[in-house]
Design brief:
The protein is mainly β. It has one domain. Helices cover 15% and strands 38% of the residues. It has a 6-stranded mixed β-sheet. Strand 6 and strand 7 form a beta hairpin.
Length: 143
Amino acid sequence: MARMRVEGDDLVVRPALWEKAAARHGNVRVPLTAVCRVTVETDWWRTVRGSRRRGTCVPGLVCIGTRAHQGGEDFIAVRPGRPLVCVELRPSAPLRLLVVAARTQSQAEALARAVRRAAPRIDESTPWRQPLPVPPETEDPGG
């Protein structure tokens, strides 16, 4: 199972070997300065947004890899029935959201607290993840 850890000034997601193969992606490393908000989610399907870019998704079993949407890309490693640590990243980061499953609710909450303590600029204005940006409307040239 993928693990999320604070290593120095970075937040690192280290998928297990089989997860790296399924995700077609290696470790994910982002600077802690890019972390905007950290939440714990209990419903796995709320974290899966956009369309699969790379990786594997077997509904009811596992979703791991990158997903693309109008706001950018997310990296997810989720399993239904497990609590999830969701880390929102600032627009300057290569990804918009990191999601990793934890074994228990208490482990997810402890990890979220550790990331919040380590990140220098956490947005605590709301305890919920923010919605994706809405793409701008364009005028219909036909009428």
